[in-house]
Amino acid sequence: MNREKVQEVRQFLAKRVIGQPDLVDGLMLALLADGHIIVEGPPGLAKTRAIKELAKCVEGSFHRVQFTPDLLPADITGTDIYHPEDGSFVFQPGPIFHHLLLADEINRAPAKVQSALLEAMAEHQITIGRKTYRLPDLFLVMATQNPIEQEGTYPLPEAQLDRFMLHIKIDYPDAQSELEILRLNSDEAVGQVNIDAPRLTQSELFSARNEVSRIEISDSLEQYIVSIVMTTRNPQVYDSDLGRWLSYGVSSRASIALARCAKARAWLSSRNYVTPDDIQICAYPVLRHRLVLSMEAEADNVTPTDVIEKLLKLVAVS
């Protein structure tokens, strides 16, 4: 029953966010695996629309924050407000206390604002002064980045990028999808779109997450994940090109995220076990933002996708 409800949400998103299947699948994986997602792509490709449509389906509150250079950490987390009537301070929660949070163009805010998300994303809590406040059990951050305009931006440090479970890269839709987008927009303009959003309660979502966590992953596939991760940390042992391209490998968060996403993908595929394909497909969004490439890789125009492709060719399933 839970799987059917989640699939209804997935099908609804696919109808409302046309031509971006990787984005739709990434959101579903993040929702089921209890992770956060960063989406990178040119403007106007339905990044904001995707999370807003998801918010229609999931029980909970949604908030969008436009990251700008003058944003302050308190604008994200909230702050203590002074009440002169009785001389007390009362905490006013910020937008981070919503269930679904869109951090739009996150790289346009300075590092002190970006770091305000660190504790929240990793531990589901924030600390203001001497007090710690718990965030909702359902808490998903979707951040966006525009790769075209980089002037005046603040690249996210590796420590914060590592907090995101998935990094989804999107590009322009094909001609057929573009035609469908035009027609959908025209229908919306005259109120002809009557697609009721399916409703997924938090209880149903948490139950689905429990089912995902019980998906079987064999010892050999766990070892496969570990081998992929270890290869990024000691690349020169496995391949001379990898040794030149990689400055740093991925953290233990990568192996945890890869296993959880592979389980979520298997569950969405109506299987109770993980296959090598699940791991290999999930490797791209899980690893691409965690790999630190060398200057030689940049000089050779090598991308994280190129590195992951080579990794998957080198590391065999035991």
Q: Compute the number of structural domains.
A: 2
CATH topology of the largest domain: Rossmann fold
Q: For the largest beta sheet, what order do the strands appear in spatially?
A: 2-5-8-1-9
What is the overall number of helices?
16
- Overall pLDDT level: 91
Strand content: 15-25%
Overall geometry: globular
Distance between the termini: 35 Å
Describe the structure.
This protein is an alpha/beta fold and 318 residues long. It contains 16 helices and 11 strands. The strands form 4 sheets. A 5-stranded parallel sheet has the order 2-5-8-1-9. It has a two-stranded antiparallel ribbon with strand order 3-4. Strands 6-7 form a two-stranded antiparallel ribbon. The two termini are 35 Å apart. 37% of the residues are buried.
Helices and strands, with pairings:
Blueprint: H1 2-16, H2 21-33, E1 37-40, H3 47-57, E2 62-66, H4 74-77, E3 78-83, E4 88-93, E5 100-104, H5 111-114, H6 116-123, E6 125-128, E7 131-134, E8 140-145, H7 158-161, E9 166-169, H8 175-189, H9 202-213, H10 219-233, H11 235-238, H12 240-245, E10 246-248, H13 252-268, H14 276-287, E11 292-293, H15 295-299, H16 304-314
Short description:
Helices cover 49% and strands 15% of the residues.
Defining traits:
318 residues, alpha/beta, Rossmann fold, Helicase, Ruva Protein, domain 3, five-stranded parallel sheet, two-stranded antiparallel sheet, 16 helices, 11 strands, globular
